[in-house]
Amino acid sequence: MHEKDKPLLLTSPVITPSLLGETGTALTAADIAYLKKCDVVRHYAKDALIARQGGYIDNLHFLLRGLARVVGLGSDGAERTFLYHSAGCFIGIEGFFHRQPVIFDLRILEDADILVIDRAAFGDLLTQSNICLYLLKSIALASRVLAHQIEDAAFRTTEQAVCRILYCLSDDAQLTYKPHFTHQEVADLVGAHRVTVTHILGQLKKEGIVRDQPRGHIALADRDKLHEKIYGCGRTQEK
């Protein structure tokens, strides 16, 4: 990640340990070993639910392996993806701390091994300053990502929101967006219809900003133009 790109790229909806490392905190091998001593590791199959909308999160969950997704559900059954969490991240932290019904489903997207820490064992974690700081930075980063999603909905056009997501999900070194993300998943992230997102991607191709790659991947042909689409100005850093 280049320094000039960091502010925008840190709004990525995919939370990873590397992003948290960019905020100045990373878990060490000793931290992971300590976490594993706090409780048992449980296996969850793909599509398993860790939490359901309206339910409670009574344990702290640390994703050792796999991928999780935080999904909001509308009254009409429409879904909106808020966040993805990769291995090495705590998931559902806010629900654990506020002890109120959650407004999302927390789903497993790939077979996962999760360290489940109950409240009694959590007390022991409070003696570990680096783990506590990692928890705080995790909450702060997720809050920042969600704030940018609110900004997308309130102040950006759908095209600008799609461009921000593409920019955040891009491979910084190769200028290539290599998701296992479908048009529908991008639409879920920005709260738009898939047809709308497909139309926007088609227009970006016409403008030479993105281009098709094999297997449905989308390569970024012009990162600066994509940045301009987000802010409607030159390549300036986020204030």
Helix-and-strand structural type: alpha+beta
Can you tell me the CATH architecture of the largest domain?
Answer: Sandwich
Would you give the CATH topology of the largest domain?
Jelly Rolls
Radius of gyration: 18 Å
The number of domains is 2
Number of helices: 10
Task: Write down the overall geometry.
Answer: globular
> How much of the residues is beta strand, in percent?
15-25%
Ends apart, CA distance between termini: 18 Å
CATH superfamily of the largest domain: Jelly Rolls
User: What's the overall average pLDDT, rounded?
Assistant: 85
Total number of beta strands: 11
Describe the sheet with the most strands.
Answer: 7 strands, mixed
Summarize the structure.
This protein has 239 residues and is of the alpha+beta class. It is 42% helix and 24% strand.
What does this structure look like?
The chain is an alpha+beta fold and 239 residues long. It has 2 domains: 3-152, Jelly Rolls; 157-231, Arc Repressor Mutant, subunit A, CATH 1.10.10. 42% of the residues lie in helices and 24% in strands. It is built from 10 helices and 11 strands. It has helices at 6-9, 17-22, 29-38, 93-98, 119-125, 129-155, 158-168, 183-190, 194-206, 223-231, and strands spanning 14-15, 41-44, 49-51, 60-73, 79-86, 89-91, 105-117, 170-171, 176-177, 210-212, 218-220. Strands 1, 2, 3, 4, 5, 6 and 7 form a 7-stranded mixed β-sheet that branches. Strands 8-9-11-10 form a 4-stranded antiparallel β-sheet. Residues 173-179 and 233-239 have low confidence and may be disordered.
